[in-house]
Design a protein that fits this description.
The chain has a single domain, classed as CBS-domain. By secondary structure, the chain is α/β, with parallel strands linked by helices. The strands form two sheets. A four-stranded mixed beta sheet has the order 1-7-6-5.
Length: about 170
């Protein structure tokens, strides 16, 4: 039986978003208020057009403080190379495909979008790693790097020739 990561492992979290017209000051306040590492940036129709993360703020010193008055979408266009092309997935993806998507897109966060492009959920690589841990914290072996990636793929992928997915 096909089960999605959200149904079986509860990996997906409800997406929180801000309008693309929000100032960078407003975006920073929203990141602090929600205690999220990243927020979806949506156009007036609610369609995902970008994302803002704590990591984007690393570019702030070269951006200058007056740029914080800019709308978040314009700030991202000026100071972030990838934030206006956020990686996405669907809520029907298998765990193995989800991990493969993280690897091929070289990202740590994927936005789950509906058929119209509205962000509904978010999943991070940390969420996936936590699924392999024995408690609320990532297993020490995984955190130290002692667990081979090939072991994770064996867990996350169905055996060759199998029609079942995790």
């Amino acid at each position: 039986m096909f089960e999605t990561p959200s149904a079986k492992l509860h990996l997906f979290k409800i997406a929180e978003s801000i309008p693309s017209s929000t100032s960078m000051f407003g975006a920073m306040e929203a990141l602090a208020r929600t205690q999220r590492q990243g927020l979806a940036v949506v156009n007036p129709g609610g369609v995902l057009v970008g994302d803002i993360s704590v990591t984007d703020l690393h570019d702030l010193p070269e951006a200058n403080f007056s740029s914080l008055n800019m709308e978040v979408v314009h700030w991202l266009r000026a100071f972030s190379s990838t934030a206006l092309t956020p990686p996405t997935t669907s809520n029907e993806v298998s765990l193995g495909t989800l991990i493969e998507t993280f690897a091929t897109k070289k990202t740590h966060r994927l936005w789950v979008v509906d058929d119209e492009g509205h962000p509904t959920h978010v999943v991070s690589l940390t969420d996936v790693l936590a699924a392999f841990s024995s408690g609320d914290h990532v297993d020490q072996r995984m955190a130290s790097g002692d667990t081979a990636i090939s072991h994770l793929w064996r867990i996350a992928s169905p055996p060759l020739g199998s029609a079942n997915e995790i």
